[in-house]
Amino acid sequence: MWFDSGVSWSAVCKKREELKFPVDLYLEGSDQHRGWFHSSLLTSVGNEDRAPYNAVLTHGFVVDGSGRKMSKSLGNIIAPHEIIEKYGAEILRLWVTYEDYRDDIKISKDIINRLVETYRRIRNTLRFLHANISSDFDPRRDSVSYERLSPLDKWLLSRLQRLIERVTDAYSNYTFHVIYHSIHNFCTVDLSALYLDIVKDRIYVEKKDGVKRRASQTVIYEALITLLKLIAPILSSTADEMWSYLKDFVKEESVLLTDFPLPKKEWINAGLEEEWESVWSVREIANKKIEEKRAAKVIGHSLDTKIIVRVPEKEYNLLAKLGDELKDVFIVSQIELQVGSEPDVTVAKAEGTKCERCWQYDTDIRTTGRFPNVCRRCEDTLSS
After folding, report:
1. Which segments of the chain have a pLDDT < 50?
2. CATH assignment of 106-268, among 1.10.730.20, 3.40.190.10, 1.10.287.110, 3.20.20.370
3. pTM reported for the whole predicted model
């Protein structure tokens, strides 16, 4: 048996026109180091003076959630078709990338349920990205050049290029669990918790053709196209479904017919990323303080607040550099910066009256005129 399988490189691959020798990859379980891998290596080296494969990938075995071998007597078998029938093939594909296959791979109902949640987050992120460009953004007409983007926009693009590098490297090295965690973290943290949470205001409130709004749409479009290409080898149906909604902007009929994304090195900015790590640290402190006030029923939304931020001089200069964008980043109506020895945030009720359009508080809201009870920014937008 070992000899028959061990000469398949000759008996099968060298004799069929659609195949080739050496083959790209031998794939089997770790027990084949002394079986098929070994006999194939011996027969090929003896006859061809080289290995029959360019690469070998070995994997562990599927076990249940407790690490036990699956067996009918234990009743712990989960068949692939059960997952596909209940959740769809995308969840099964996602599970394949979930854990490091070089060890034994666990599967259980709890694990599948967690993967369903992960899939839902990724899918909802794609839907949100698309929703914010689908109605009025044409990348050929409305895209904003890199030089005109805000520091926040440039930060997201830098993070996106890092993601391309990590995922490309992971595909090349067959470390699929790195792809899973990288995509998931980018969608839930970089996009949902940070960038998209902040730019919702400018997407919904700024002038339709305003530079800030178009800049964010430019970045959102870039992120959507890139994510679809990165997930296509795994979440193929999901990526292709979303791609079909972009047919007015893309020339390829399917995402599977596109080139894999290459990182734009000129968009990677290590210094900018480091600066924003400091910003996110202060924002996290502010969010905790705001949440305490919300729990105490002092405020409802973060826009109901004015915050006083005290930070060391280095962080002060960093935050001050953001100018008007700073209160957008913290999602508050007003912000006051002070120099202090340690980062600290004081939360107070916002000053002035709440704008009925953008929900931000302002001390200069008029109750009369063509557009009453809105702030000057919204009045200007509505007038235009």
Report:
1. none
2. 1.10.730.20
3. 0.91
